[in-house]
Amino acid sequence: MITIGLTGWSDHDTLYSSTSKHKLEDYAGNFPMVEVDTSFYAIPSPLTTEKWVERTPEEFTFVVKAFQAMTKHKEWQQYYDSETEMYRRFMDAIAPMSESGRLKAILFQFPPYFGCTKENVTYLRAIREKMGDLPLAIEFRNKTWYTESTTVKTLALLKELAFIHTVVDEPQVGNGSVPIVLKATNEAMTLIRLHGRNSAGWMKANSPEWREVRTLYRYSEEEINYWAENIRYLQQQSKEVIVIFNNNSGGDAADNAKQLQKALDISYEAWLRCK
């Protein structure tokens, strides 16, 4: 099974009219899954996530990004009285999705400075303990997890903890990015996130214009076909491959996602008609 979607539902102008007030519903008329990235910046209330569930078809699913203090981008002390409270708030937020069977995975995207250390391995184990048996996807942004001496150990750790490996396509610039590693660590699911290949924009992560340039990239037909082959390969390792286009800066994600559907000969039309 291959499931294709985008990061967020509000930045894809080709999917709806400029006057649309129902962008989530319009999005759900095009794709069967979405990555919720707003949860990275602030944990939403259960009332909000319940409304997302109510406004979308029963078959529509969500990949939810973990809150930024859960992934060491920020310190939890900036937001909550305890780490336990932070995790409890997040679990309450995803409950409407999880309890309705609409949660695909929780994505823990770690920062470039989260390297392959004993301390960080311990934290990964703590995450699994805190989150129970929920489906958790791990995305690294530090190359030390995928060196000649660490790649096998990294994949073994993810498999041991039943984590979903996130395969990424991103600019290869220094230690703040990781290579494409076409390996599954969870038989149920593998996640692919396509960030584009804008090396200059990727290096401006801390600049005021990062949203406009960081993922400003449009995949070529050749690159789409390359990823179609990679996805077919990963299908042999996991029951489901989830593909998320995150090249949103220039509004290219939706068009590229539909190109990939065509390359893989996938149509969601029958599903969409039943929504």
TrEMBL record:
Descriptive protein name: DUF72 domain-containing protein
Annotated source species: Listeria grandensis FSL F6-0971
InterPro entries hit by this protein: DUF72, UPF0759_sf
UniProt superkingdom: Bacteria
TM region(s), chain numbering: none
Lineage: Bacteria, Bacillati, Bacillota, Bacilli, Bacillales
